[in-house]
Specification:
The chain is an alpha+beta fold. The strands form 2 sheets. It has a 5-stranded mixed β-sheet with strand order 2-4-5-7-6. Helix 1 packs antiparallel against helix 3, helix 3 packs antiparallel against helix 4 and helix 6 packs across helix 9. The protein is elongated and about 110 Å long. The mean pLDDT is 80.
Length: 352
């Protein structure tokens, strides 16, 4: 049976009160019971910043009783002989309770402000996303419609090469639309928890070559050399295709230089590193790269800010991790993806 959070807080608070009261009791003749009252009030106030209302009210009442029993003369009794001490004890009790209520209200106000700020930030992100998405969808749709109309109206007048060029434009725009719609669907799968990997034995070299041939057939900025020592890995080839597609698209869009892919295994971990020759990213913004709809300030238009959030979701579905860091040898960004896998060296025996 799981212990309720407020009971745990109450137990923790009792321990804290004991740790404060013990040295105060030892040095009670030096401190005086009035100073002890201030120390106990401060302790209760600090706990009120994080504890729930019920345990902190109990702790406030308990601190008053402890102060009375161990520090207000006569000691070791709840009797208070001096009218001044009775008034002081009453004020302590009232101040402790009022302080708890005020701290609770302050916490609620802070939480409300945080929720409002998060809501405004989310609305801003969604507005940015939909503005970007409308642009990203409008361009390929306009290309498809324009090229199709041209083929229909001027088919007899167009040279074969011109018809081929228009068909290629339609195909390219269709692939772009497919990517955007697929990203939106993948975000929904990630957030709903329906992204279940389909594990199978895969040659990672083949997966990477397949992604490059299918999505980047004419791209000469991407460099990858097969690692012939790589074993078979049990993983989801489809998820890796989506991961590689989004990382490489992002790298090609925002960096002018080359992009390098390296793959290796260490024990039962698959490591894929994708490095670019771009300007890098400010260290303070490295963590936010993987947030949904996030785009670096002052970057060129293009993209919806979904790519790297999808990458993180896919990697986490594979129970792995992804880290972005600036290169130390030169300018550029490195994405290091590490995923636990079962490995098999049968492919190496076959090659031998």
């Amino acid at each position: 049976m799981q212990t309720k959070p407020w009971i745990k807080q109450l137990g923790t608070g009792v321990v804290i009160l004991l740790l404060v009261c013990l040295p105060c009791f030892i040095f009670r003749d030096i401190l005086g019971y009035r100073v002890v009252a201030l120390l106990l009030l401060m302790t209760v106030s600090i706990m009120a910043m994080t504890f729930e209302i019920l345990p902190i009210l109990i702790l406030a009442a308990l601190s008053a009783l402890v102060w009375n029993f161990f520090f207000i003369p006569p000691l070791f009794t709840f009797h208070i002989s001096s009218p001044e001490d009775i008034l002081l004890f009453t004020m302590y009790f009232v101040i402790a309770m009022v302080n708890v209520v005020f701290m609770r209200r302050i916490r609620k106000m802070e939480q409300k402000n945080q929720e409002q700020a998060e809501k405004e930030r989310t609305l801003t992100l969604y507005a940015t996303f939909f503005n970007s998405l409308s642009h990203e969808l409008r361009t390929p749709i306009a290309t498809i419609i324009g090229s199709a109309e041209t083929l229909q109206q001027l088919k007899e007048k167009l040279a074969p090469q011109e018809q081929t060029d228009l068909l290629q434009q339609i195909e390219s725009a269709g692939l772009q639309l497919h990517l955007q719609v697929n990203n939106i669907l993948n975000v929904s799968r990630v957030e709903s928890g329906l992204l279940a990997p389909k594990m199978e034995w895969c040659d990672i070299n083949d997966i990477i070559h397949g992604t490059l041939q299918h999505h980047f057939p004419d791209q000469n900025r991407i460099h990858f050399s097969s690692n012939e020592q790589l074993p078979l890995c049990q993983t989801d080839a489809g998820l890796w295709d989506q991961i590689l597609l989004n990382v490489l698209k992002n790298a090609l869009l925002y960096t002018p230089g080359n992009v390098y892919i390296k793959v290796a295994t260490t024990e039962n971990t698959l490591e894929i590193s994708i490095t670019d020759e771009g300007p890098g990213v400010p260290d303070a913004q490295l963590e936010t790269l993987f947030e949904k709809f996030y785009r670096l300030p002052h970057t060129q238009t293009g993209g919806t800010g979904l790519g790297l959030s999808i990458v993180k979701g896919c990697i986490e579905a594979l129970e792995g991790s992804v880290e972005a860091k600036n290169r130390t040898d030169r300018s550029g960004l490195q994405l290091l993806m590490q995923v636990p896998v079962a490995i098999n060296y049968l492919n190496q025996l076959k090659n031998e």
